[in-house]
Amino acid sequence: MAIFSKLLTKTDIEKRLSFPTKCLRSLPCFGRGHAVDFHVMDECGQVWTFRCTIRKKNNPKPVISKDWSKFVSSKHLDVGDKITLSKLDNEVGCAFYRIEVKKPVKLFGVNVDLEISDGEALEILKVASSPGSLMDGLDGSNAILQQEQQQQSLNPKDWIVADPQNAWDLLHEERSLMTRLTTSCADLDDILGGGISCKQVTEIGGVPGIGKTQLGIQLAVNVQMPSYCGGLGGKAIYIDTEGSFMGERAQEIAEACVEDISEYKRFLHKDLQACQGEIHGKDVLQNIYFFRICSYTEQIALINYLEEFISDHKDVKIVIIDSVAFHFRQGFEDLALRTRILGEMALKLVKLAKMCSLALTELRKVFGTVLISVYFEHAYHLSHQYDVACFLNDAMYAAVVLLNQVTTRYMEGSFQLSFSLGDSWSRWCTNRIILYWNRNERYAYIDKSPYLRPAAAPYSVTARGIRNSAPHCKRSKLV
């Protein structure tokens, strides 16, 4: 256990090896002319020796050895670097210390201008920088060293983003790579432009019992469907924070999905097995990775782990969280802290979406279930060119879908549904869809979208999953 710790600059040690008085007092008393060897162990376990000749008790004069020169060279030390020496043990004539080197992070005034810490500014620049830039893959001292080496050849403008893209190319890219995931309800797909879109954030909310969890399970199943059926041909991650996932219900929806695929194949009169293999109900359930989360700390940890998990399971196309707000709506007295944690979590998801071309959608509910779904999609079109579709299946284009809760708010003289977690959270969402009851029928309404016009569509929750509205699926009246 370290009994001494002090930050020293490289200049201090090089010129006079200025250890504090507290350190010297802990050493055996030496007379004038005696020498003390300081054995310093770095983070790699290598030991470096520095010899001091005692002239005065509180003013040792070092004899800089070759080890010190090698140490400076190997660690790329520079003026202003902070060196932490922690004493481990001492014997007669020698002392052991552990050394840690921390290089100052040069953030070009970002932290000063925004009045935030170096760590927060570093995180902002990591997200703002383009893929493959100097901020990618930073971790520990190696990350700081990597940053320092690359800063020498970069200007502050290189920290911003990649080269600009003209609007025409952007429009062409959006149209060519915009793949959608079907909801299994044709009317709902119509108002959504074909289904849940990728590379965007869609927030869906509604009252309890409206069918949000059913929709989440339906999407986890539909993502495994081939492209000609409106799916993405991948697997799903289901993160359950409330314990509302039902395996038996998932099996019912999966078996119905398999039957629908078989019917569609017979309708096309084509052998599609060359590109898509046969799907069975058991396979659908095995392709859903299930996580049970019991606290907000576990939720944050899992969000941070998603990037690594998805890199190991590249066929994952959707992540569903049920629900994102459950653990954040209780036990938080500090609302500012909650907002900050939620912002960091959203930032992780946005970064994941950008890296894997994800699209975000949130399902929210009033005092009820929430799902966050992250859709990872292939860059192929819904066409009959199945060989092209299978080739583009290797491209990692993704969509993130977030499902969250809503509550009620008094506005304009009446109580209206409002998405939970406040306005700061809603800024991450591109589209907003509200699920509600109209008399005895379920409806979905597009409340906000930059490219979809406001519209409503009925839907039903049947034994086979989410389907078009049907009279026998209406809510029963209590007599």
Unreliable residue runs: 1-10, 12-32, 60-66, 90-94, 105-111, 128-145, 364-395
Summarize model confidence as the mean pLDDT: 68
Beta-strand proportion: 25-35%
Structural class: alpha/beta
Top CATH class of the largest domain: Alpha Beta
Give the domain tally.
Answer: 3
CATH topology of the largest domain: Rossmann fold
List keywords for this structure.
479 residues; globular; 21 strands; Rossmann fold; disordered N terminus; DNA-binding; alpha/beta; At1g16640 B3 domain; DNA repair
Description:
This protein has helices at about 10-15, 20-25, 65-75, 110-115, 120-130, 140-150, 165-175, 185-190, 210-220, 245-270, 280-285, 295-310, 335-355, 385-390, 420-425; strands at about 5-10, 35-40, 45-55, 60-65, 80-90, 95-100, 180, 195, 200-205, 235-240, 290, 315-320, 360-365, 370-375, 395-405, 405-410, 415-420, 430-440, 440-450, 455-460, 465. Strand 13 (about 360-365) and strand 14 (about 370-375) form a beta hairpin. Helix 12 runs parallel beside helix 13. The chain contains 15 helices and 21 strands. It has 3 domains: about 5-100, At1g16640 B3 domain (Beta Barrel), CATH 2.40.330; about 110-160, no CATH class; about 170-475, Rossmann fold. With about 475 residues, the protein is of the alpha/beta class. About 35% of the residues lie in helices and about 25% in strands. Strands 9, 13, 14, 15, 18, 19, 20 and 21 form an 8-stranded mixed sheet that branches. The protein has a 6-stranded mixed sheet with strand order 1-5-6-2-3-4. This is DNA repair protein RAD51 homolog 3. It is found in: Nucleus. Keywords: ATP-binding, DNA damage, DNA repair, DNA-binding, Nucleotide-binding, Nucleus, Transcription, Transcription regulation.
